[in-house]
# Entry
Amino acid sequence: MAKRIDVSDLNIYYGNFLAVENVNVSIEPRSITALIGPSGCGKSTFLRSINRMHEVVPGGRVEGKIVMDGQDLYGADVDPVDVRRQIGMVFQRPNPFPTMSIYENVAAGIRLNNKKMRKSDLDDLVERSLRGANLWNEVKDRLNRPGAGLSGGQQQRLCIARAIAVEPDVLLMDEPASALDPISTLAIEDLMADLKERFTIVIVTHNMQQAARVSEQTGFFNLSGVGQPGRLIEFNPTEKIFSNPDQKATEDYISGRFG
Amino acid sequence: MTQTSTAPAPPGSSAPAPRRGERTRRLPTWAPWAAFLGVAAVVGALWPVLDLNAALFVLYTVVLGTLAVYLLTRAVEGSRRATDRLVTCLVVSAFGLAMVPLVSLVWEVVSRGAARLDGEFFTSSLVGIVGEGGGAYHAIMGTLIITALTTLLSVPIGLMTAIFLVEYARGRLKRAITFLVDVMTGIPSIVAGLFAYALFAIFLGPGIRLGVMGAVALSVLMIPVVVRSAEEVLKLVPNELREASYALGVPKWRTIVKVVIPTSIAGLGTGVTLAIARVVGETAPLLITLGITNATNLDAFDGRMATLPVYAYYQLTQPGVPPQFATDRAWTAALVLIILVMGLNVVARLISRFFAPKTGR
Ligand SMILES: Nc1ncnc2c1ncn2[C@@H]1O[C@H](COP(=O)(O)OP(=O)(O)O)[C@@H](O)[C@H]1O
Ligand SMILES: [Mg+2]
# Structure
């Protein structure tokens, strides 16, 4: 089930370095939320704090609150591993497991967690996930070939299939198409439009047109200087951001008059 | 004369002007070989005059041949190519020089050890043998048992240490352990032997000789090698794979067991095999901890055991009369040891070949 995420007063640190300051935002279920902004302003950092991947980095910690459908993700009794099961993630560079076949990559979330599942059920799940990622027709004849043998765009869709196979509520995507050619990018964008029926999607992108094409809501991150924390400058419906933003900085960035 | 100024080639000229010191004339590819052959023939003709031996002949041929190739190339092709040829000759000569001890060692061991490389050597021990015959069955089994025991002790400890260092340890603790592993790498093998001896003597009294003592001593030598190689291999696993696993809600320990280790299994296997090859020929620590025996003892927890290196040592230093038979056995033991190490190296290569992640488009 897609879920709603409410972020309040979030500060994100690397050790003593405050990377992102004071984020307040509500992310709607069954929609695509895009995060844009210049490099180094903390988009990835913010995204990774949503599924508690941020604390994997040594010294990574957060202050503030992220609540998903009433559940405080940073509550004292919450296991980060559980959070990551509910909030899936797709990375900038496709990273299929090199030791595993295409099939095993998709089944990785089940297999690695030692969940017991009948072979026929697992077959179904793999097929469903690959269909969901628009990859089934391309790989159905070679499910047992290594996942690393696919093209970059196929690998990225394989990673999406792997992420949706564990049936998360939310899907985070950190520049999922930035390493891909235009055709693969289009395939991923089409895919996102399908996926938002079932998931809450948050996507970081450097590509303004992409944000405009796929998202309902857009957040603009910016930072006032090197060593300064990044901030969420504006969060509004995508249409408004791209036609009539509230903030001057947003308009400058979108119209390319940035920096 | 070639032009010394570096004026740019006029626009439109198709072939770039030859660089300084480079001419367009080329020697045929066989020319350097012919030069060497010619020099060899000349030096060979002078053999009686100069009172040469084989080593001097090779030395003269290489030095004069290099010179001849250099001068010939310089005259025909220019100084750039001549320098290139000169360096090629130097590198090849250095390689040849490095191969001399290796080849002569293998040659010596094979030629002397082949005599006794027979069935009896692998099937009988030295019980009741005075003079001819006998074998090293007990020593071969001893070496296999001790090495297996050492591997059993060292690999889990070494691998877990490496995993701890790469996946968990941070800051001062990590530096301390790395430093200690470095120190351990430098421990002389005799010290490892004395350590194991002293350790067991505390509990079992002085003069004790046991198979496990040898395994413990060799483990002291093997653990740091395993840690080091495993650490390097684990570091090569891209962090992205760990993150991909975490993002699926897989706990850290399971990520290590099911993603990190399988991804690096080829390198880990290779490292372990090479570490085994490193300790299989150790002599000094086994001399202290295992001693030697003529009979077959397959129980590592009861009394002296023979091993190949120690066997070779005793056959050579205490051969009895006549010494010929024991000396032959010593050489054959050395040969078997070399074959064992070479076999392990082949195994290491096979492991890295078969377990390496496949991409196969
Ligand atoms: N692992 C890390 N350790 C320390 N600082 C980091 C780390 N990753 C990112 N940062 C810092 O955090 C800030 C935000 O980075 P990031 O979230 O990657 O920006 P973006 O994704 O918007 O380009 C930058 O100043 C960056 O230097
Ligand atoms: Mg980023």
The mean pLDDT of chain A is 91.
